[in-house]
Amino acid sequence: MDTVKEVRLTWDKETGKYSRRRKATTTAFLRGPVPMDWLAAAAALRGSALLLGTVLWHIAGMQGTRRDLPVSTERLEQFGVSRHAKFRALRSLVDAGLVTVQHKRGRSPRVTLVVGKGKGRRKPTTFSQ
């Protein structure tokens, strides 16, 4: 027996045609893949490093690249990160080898996400029993 697929259509007044409904994305999202080892390394850092890293991955997903990402203070203030916390978190991420940063006077820093082998200057965390 054949199955019937249900398709919901709405009337579009502008075009005068029926069309499929599209759900508008109104909330921020992460576009992956986001490496779990990268997130785990950022989570081990102090302060807002993980939050800043998550915002960086969000920006990377929206721009389609991991290089030369703008990190504006206005964007981070939406997440409760001050400009001072931004620079401390960036320093932590750089020290951990998770990002590289280009600073220009009077401009937002440009960040490149570092993913792959050989990243990081820290030794992996080991758990003893």
Short overview:
It is built from four helices and five strands. With 129 residues, it is α+β, with helices and mostly antiparallel strands. The longest helix is centred in the middle third of the chain and has 15 residues.
Explained architecture:
This protein is α+β, with helices and mostly antiparallel strands and 129 residues long. It has a domain at 46-113: Orthogonal Bundle (Arc Repressor Mutant, subunit A). It is 32% helix and 14% strand. The chain has helices at 36-43, 49-63, 73-77, 83-95, and strands at residues 9-12, 17-20, 69-70, 99-102, 110-113. A three-stranded antiparallel beta sheet has the order 3-5-4. A two-stranded antiparallel sheet has the order 1-2. A hairpin with a 4-residue loop joins strand 1 and strand 2 (17-20). The longest helix has 15 residues, at 49-63.
User: Nearest-angstrom radius of gyration?
Assistant: 21 Å
- Please list the strands of the largest sheet in the order they lie side by side: 3-5-4
Mean pLDDT: 84
The CATH top-level class label of the domain at 46-113: Mainly Alpha
Question: Uncertain regions: pLDDT < 50 for 5+ in a row?
Answer: 119-129
What class do helices, strands and sheet pairing give?
alpha+beta
Work out the helicity level: 25-40%
CATH topology of the domain at 46-113: Arc Repressor Mutant, subunit A
